[in-house]
Amino acid sequence: MNTAPLSTCVFDDITEAIAGPGMGIFPGFLNPAQTAALRRDFATLPDWQLTPAGIGREHAHHNNERIRTDKTRWLDGTTPPQQDYLALMAGLQQSLNRELFMGLRDYECHYARYDEGDFYKKHLDAFRGRSNRRVTTVLYLNNDWQADQGGELLIYAEKGAQPSHRVMPEGGTLVCFLSERFPHEVLPARRQRLSIAGWFRIDDPVAPVLRL
């Protein structure tokens, strides 16, 4: 996967979005060749390496099929497409820290596969003052996604009952948002849906709520 075509101005756009409304949607973050390389990498994983996704962390982590039904596999950087993607996100981390002084220390991410009918109910990726996740990223790997195939990501305002954004999971699109501020959900898909979900993290899980 060649990351050279991605201009640093995209990092500037993401940084501006995080500093402003706290979220942004970036179609074409990866070009079709880059997206296809990650999709092929994902496809090489046997089913036994994918685990039912859980909710909660550490001792509170458990599976709940009423909340989510996707299957995941953490990226470990053992293949060239994974290495290139992780290097790209390291560059984004540096940009966010340099421009916004966010103190992001690392990045973790996993492949996520939603088979037909799978979903993830409305949730937050981080609870205020009780998580070290600061910025959520979602990258879509799907080829030729159609509007009638479902699987949209719904993003809500902090206190909104209706979604403020509806994102179709088109390949190469990146979504970024502050993990503590934006509840979101994944609607049931009508075909297999592939993505990479990730989180930029800080060291201190009880740090003050981030206000940019």
Please give a structural write-up.
There is one protein chain. The chain has one domain: Sandwich (Jelly Rolls). The chain contains 3 helices and 11 strands, in the order αβαββαββββββββ. It has helices at residues 8-19, 32-43, 80-100, and strands at residues 23-26, 51-52, 71-74, 106-114, 120-123, 133-140, 153-156, 163-167, 174-178, 184-186, 193-201. The strands form 2 sheets. The chain has a 7-stranded antiparallel β-sheet with strand order 1-9-6-11-4-3-2, covered by helices on one side. A 4-stranded antiparallel β-sheet has the order 5-10-7-8, with no helix packed on it. α1 packs across α3. The protein starts with 7 loop residues before the first helix and ends in an 11-residue tail after the last strand. Residues 1-5 and 54-64 have low confidence and may be disordered.
Task: Give a short synopsis of this structure.
By secondary structure, the chain is of the alpha+beta class. The chain has helices spanning 8-19, 32-43, 80-100, and strands spanning 23-26, 51-52, 71-74, 106-114, 120-123, 133-140, 153-156, 163-167, 174-178, 184-186, 193-201.
Which short descriptors sum up this protein?
212 residues, alpha+beta, Jelly Rolls, seven-stranded antiparallel β-sheet, four-stranded antiparallel β-sheet, 3 helices, 11 strands, globular, disordered N terminus
